[in-house]
Request: fold
Amino acid sequence: MLKILNVVGARPQIIKAAAISREIKNHFGDKIKEVILHTGQHYDDLMSQVFFDEMGIPPVDFNLNVGSSSHAVQTAQIMQGAEQILLNEKPDFVFVYGDTNSTLAVSIAAAKLHFRVVHIEAGLRSFNKSMPEEINRIVCDHVSSILFTPTWKGLENLKREGFSAETKSPFSMNNPGVFHCGDIMYDNSLYYSELASGKTTILQDLSLKGGDFILLTVHRDMNTDNPARLKEISEAMLEIAGKMKCKVLFPLHPRTRKNIESEIHRETYKKLQNSDKIILHRPLSFFEMIEAEKACKLVITDSGGVQKEAFFFRKPSIILRKETEWVEIVECGAAHLTGTSQGEIIKAAEHFLSSPDLNFPSIFGNGRAAHFICNKLLENT
Ligand code: UD1
Reply:
C-alpha cells in the first residue's frame, strides 16, 4: 500500500486535493492510503471547512493551525510543523498543489528529509518574480521528484529550466519525472457542474438571473494592499454596472473585506454599499461559485483559478493583472489582461458585453487528470 501525504492550506488547494481524494476513494482505495495535512493557512470556515463538507473530503489527519502572519513566519511555522509529521508518518509521496506558502514550506521540508514531493500544477510561470506565488512555484518545482503539468505550456516552461520529459523511473529530486496530465480543477468543474445546481439557491437568493450579472473577485495582495489599485477596480466596477445596467456579484475574500472597509477607502466603500447594482457578499462555497460562474455573463478577477473556471464554463474573463500563468486563454481571445487601469477594465468589459464570437479550445485536458496522476504514481514506484 502506497502512502501519500495530501497537503492543503489555502482555499484552492482544498478544492484541488478533493479531486485526488475522490479518485483514491473511488478507484485506488486498495492501493493508495491518503493522510491529509492541513497547514491552517486558511482557517475561516468559509475559506476552509465549507469545501471539506461540500466535496466530501475525508477529515484532516493533522492541522498545523498556522493562520496568518508574514510570509517568512507563515512559511517557517509550516516547515517546522510539517517536519515532525513527515518524520512520524514516513509517506511514500508528498502531494503539494499550486503556489502558496503552504506549497513552498512543505515541499522544502519534505525534500530536505529526502521525501519525494509530487507537485501538481507544476511548470506554470507568470515571469514576474515580485509575486510571492512565482517564487513559491519555481522553488517547489525544483525540489520535486514528480511534476504534473496542467497545460503543454507548463511542460515547455519546465523543459526550458532544464527538466526532461524523457527521464525513466525511479524518480527522485535528482532524476525528476515530468508529465503533462491536464488540469485537476477541470476534473472538479466537470464532476460538480450538474451536482452543484440542486445544492445551492444562491442565484434565487440574490435575485440573479442567468446572463444578467458580472462575477467579480479580487484577492491578490498586489491589488488589495495597494489603495490606488483597489480604488481603480472599484470605480471601474461602479461605472460598468451603471453604464451597462448590469449587476455585479462581488464575494469578498477576508483580506479584501478588511482593506476595503478601512478608513482610506471610506468614500469608495460607501458608493459600493449604496449601489443597487453591486452585491457585496461573503466568500462563496465551491458549489455557489460554480453556479455563479455558469450563470454570469462575464468574470472579472485577479485569481488564477477563477479565470480558468470561467473558461471551463465558456465565459469570458477580464484579468486584473499584467500577466497570467494561463496564457492560452488570453491567446485565444477568451480573456483580456487589463491590470487595474480603470479605462482598460471598462474597455474590455464593453468588448465582452457586446457578445463577440469567442473560442474556447480544449486546453486543460479531458477531466481525468486525477486518474492519470494516481496511475502514474503506481506505475513508477
Ligand atoms: C493565498 C495564496 C494565493 C492564493 C490564495 C487563495 C500565498 C502567498 N498566497 O493568498 O496564492 O491564490 O491564498 O485564496 O500563499 N484571511 C482570513 N481568513 C482566512 C484566510 C485569510 O481572514 O481564512 C486573511 C488574513 O487577514 C490574511 C489575509 O487574509 O492576512 C491573507 O491570507 P494569506 O493566507 O496570507 O494569503 P491569501 O491572500 O489568502
Remarks:
- The pocket of uridine-diphosphate-N-acetylglucosamine is lined by residues 10-12, 41-44, 47, 68, 99-101, 132-133, 219, 221, 254-255, 258 (CB under 6 Å).
- The two ends are 11 Å apart (CA to CA).
